[in-house]
Every structure is written in structure tokens, then in C-alpha cells.
Amino acid sequence: MDQDIQEILFTPAEIAAANQKLGQQLARDYHGKNPLFVCVLKGAILFLTDLVRQIPESVEIDFMDVSSYHGKTTSSGEVKILKDLDVSVAGRDVVFVEDIIDTGKTLKALMDLFASRKAKSVKIVSLVDKPAHREQVVQADYIGLTCPDKFIVGYGMDYQENYRNLPYIGVLKSEVYL
Questions:
Q1: Which domain does 33 fall in, by range?
Q2: Residue (of 176, 102, 170) closest to 135 by Cα position
């Protein structure tokens, strides 16, 4: 897999430092509130796992599986819920955990959905923000790292279900996906 990477943008140490910083901020902001952390599968699972280990209090987690890329390198704009939550968000403080905010289309659709489900509050934590590619007005409340407008993989992020298990975040060589 390493041979398919053009450059490493974020090392394992940089990712760990971002997780620690975000976890400490969330621990302070949600002290005594028992928030519901909602992870978007599959890309955010590694981030969620490392993030919640930084929080010294009880938190609840649940998962959604949504698709908007459908095997491509750009979002189709069509958001499909493949797996919905197992618990209600009504009256809950929800922390939405994303691996990357790219176009913002998926996140905007899910934020609208959670509002209609009467969540008490919804905040977004994203490991990576890619603002240059934004098409919807969506702003994360907590951001770990900011990346340029490049196609990245690793640490949960994939291309056609590959590269998720890289311990770093890197730019995929264009010849791999063009």
C-alpha cells in the first residue's frame, strides 16, 4: 500500500496529538453530560476509538453507515443511510464524529436529520477538515487537522475499501484512481 502513496500528510504522532487535544476539549465541554457519540462508518471508526479513549468519563456510542461516494473519489450528492442509529437522539447531546469534512453534503443531510429527530444539541468533531472542497455550509465545532484539496487515504479513510489500515494519512497517487 505504501507504494501507492504520493506523500504522507499526517504521521501517526500528529494524528495521536490531534486526538489527545480533541479528547481533552470534549471532556471539558461535556463533563457530566453523558453525550452520545455518533460515528459515521466506516471511515471514522479508528478516529472514534482513539478519541473516546481520551475522555475519562462515561460516553455512549452509536453508529451510522451512510454512503455518498459510491466507490468514487467525489461525492455524488446523494446521501443514502445504510445503517441507522440504534438509539434515539431526542433530548440528547450528540457529538457527531467524522473522519473528514469534504464537500459537506453528507454532514449537512445528517445534521438536518438529527434536528428533525429533536436532538438537544449536535456538535461536530472531525479529524480532518478539507475546506477548499466545501459545497455546503457546514462547520465543525472541533477540528483536529486541516488538509489541502488532495485525495487522502489512511487511518480509516479509503479508496474502494482499501488503505483504511494505514497508520498515517497520505495523498493517494492519482494513477491509482484515474
A1: 12-147
A2: 102
* Active-site hit among 102, 129, 141, 158: 102
Reported as type and span, the H/E element at residue 8 is strand 5-10
Question: Mean pLDDT in each 10-residue stretch from start to end of the chain (178 residues)?
Answer: 96 98 97 94 95 94 82 63 94 95 85 92 95 83 95 95 97 92
Residue 160 lies in a domain: no
Residue 175 inside a domain? The answer is no
> Structure pTM?
0.90
Is 176 part of any domain? no
**Residue 65 catalytic?**
no
Which residues, at least 6 apart from 139, have a Cβ–Cβ distance to it below 8 Å?
Answer: 124
Which residue shows C-alpha cell 461536530?
Answer: 124
The CATH number of residue 107's host domain is: 3.40.50.2020
